[in-house]
Amino acid sequence: MKLALVVPGGVDRTGKYRVIPVLLALIERLAREHEVHVFALRQEARPDRWELAGATIHNIGDGWQRLRAIAAIRAEHRRAPFDLMQAIFSGSCSLVAVGAARSLRLPSLVHIAGGELVALRDIGYGGRLTWRARLREAVVLRAADRVTAASAPIVDSLHRLGVEARRVPLGVDLCRWAPLAPRRREHACARLIHVASLNRVKDQATLLRALAVLAQSGVPFRMDMVGVDTLDGEVHRLVEELGLQAHVHLLGFRTQDELRPLMAGADLLVMSSRHEAGPLVALEAAVMGVPTVGTAVGHIAEWAPNAALAVPVGDWAALSGAIHQVLGDEALRLRLALSAQRRAIQEDAEETARTFETLYVQLLAKGLGR
Q1: Mind listing the pLDDT tens digit for each residue in 116-125?
Q2: CB contact at 8 A, 64 and 51
Q3: Which SS3 state, helix, strand or coil, does residue 269 take?
Q4: Which residue stretches of 144-279 are H helix?
Q5: Which residue, 128, 122, 252, 170, is CA-closest to 5?
Q6: How far apart are CA 327 and CA 319, in angstroms?
Q7: Residue 366: count of CB within 10 angstroms of its CB
Q8: Going along the chain, which residue ranges are E strands?
């Protein structure tokens, strides 16, 4: 098959920086058997083309991205016809993929992997903030031949909108994240880790307030926070205001190679997001034998209570209590870790690619889009 994948970015030519690891894992596996062309709306500001993970990356760049992306897809189709279009993320990506597919009479898939279905107005986040965006999503998702989503809560959200969808997690590359058996804690000082860009959606303010309660209760811990700062030092200042300098270490961005040993040395992943389709890091942690405590979003919500502990969004007191509970009960921590690891390994990158390939074959067999 010749496949067109439309993505917002995450496919930097370095393969290390400004990438989405699970996306690269999927592309690499699809490219083993198929000719894959990835149309990135804005990986770089200027249009360009390069090879990555066995696929050809077409960077659209700034200015009239949707129209130029459709034109680029049509031009490549004229060179040699595509069989199918897929958007990873909805919004502009789905508009391009479904629009191009309709114009070429090809089947299309849309995968929901982010905040396309929410409207967090107080922080200006989500794909449903305006009536235009809501209308666009309603039209595009119904025009797609198949819709998939990363986790059960997102599938449920689609069903409430009247859109049929299938759950397809974007799995971890087990070749790069070799599984480690869950391990007993070796240190009295608990090693916590949080991996996410510092932004309003990830809600590190709630996380830090939970950690402040934990510190006040006398629990010894170290928290490594990994992620790019998009808030101009706001999180750093809150660490100081809450007196957490001795506990919290802000490490900034880390490549996957740098992140793995940090994760392997952790006892618990803690997430505080207001919304997630994943988070993907929960899968990476699970593979490494590390359980997750976090807010009831995405995989954390669907795994609770047997493979994760989930608390209400924004509830720092409950988050602190859940962390305290897991750190105080080693048998519970290991049970969560083992259950989470089983799930993450069963739904790894190979399984993701196989599932999508099955959907592709089904669409082509039905002649959808023709």
Answers
A1: 899 999 999 9
A2: no
A3: strand
A4: 152-160, 204-216, 234-241, 256-264
A5: 170
A6: 12
A7: 11
A8: 2-7, 35-40, 48-52, 55-59, 84-88, 108-112, 146-149, 166-167, 190-195, 221-226, 248-252, 268-271, 292-295, 309-311
DSSP 19: B
Integer-rounded Cα Rg, in Å, for the chain is: 21
SS3 145: coil
In this structure, are strands 55-59 and 48-52 parallel, antiparallel, or unpaired? antiparallel
* For residue 370, pLDDT beyond 60: no
Give the 3-state secondary structure of residue 53: coil
Q: Comparing C-alpha atoms, which of 345, 205, 348, 353 is closest to residue 289?
A: 345
283 touches 179 (CB < 8 A) = no
pLDDT tens figures, 290-346: 999 999 999 999 999 999 999 999 999 999 999 999 999 999 999 999 999 999 999
**Helix H segments across 217-307?**
234-241, 256-264, 280-287, 298-303
Work out the burial of residue 214: count CB atoms within 10 Å of its CB; fewer than 13 is exposed, 13-18 middle, 19 or more buried: buried
Fold exhibited by the domain 2-171+348-366: Rossmann fold (3.40.50)
Q: What letters, b where the CB count within 10 A reaches 16 and e where it falls short, cover 310-348? A: bbebebbebbbbbbbebbeeeeebbebbebbbebbbebb
User: What's the pLDDT score for residue 334?
Assistant: 98
Q: How far apart are CA 337 and CA 306, in angstroms?
A: 9
- CA–CA distance, 366 with 370 (Å, rounded to integer): 9
Torsion of CA 215, 216, 220, 226, to 10 degrees: 0
Cβ atoms of 82 and 96 closer than 8 Å: no
Report how far residue 202's alpha carbon sits from residue 176's, in angstroms, rounded to the nearest whole number. 25
The three-point CA angle 5-6-8 to 5° equals 135
Is residue 274 within 8 Å of residue 313, measured between CB atoms? yes
Domains of the chain, by residue range, sit at 2-171+348-366, 190-346
CATH code of the domain occupying 190-346: 3.40.50.2000
Please indicate whether the domains covering 2-171+348-366 and 190-346 agree at the CATH topology level. Answer: yes
Query: Is the CA virtual torsion 3, 167, 346, 311 positive or negative?
Result: positive
| Structure tokens given for 184 | 């007993």
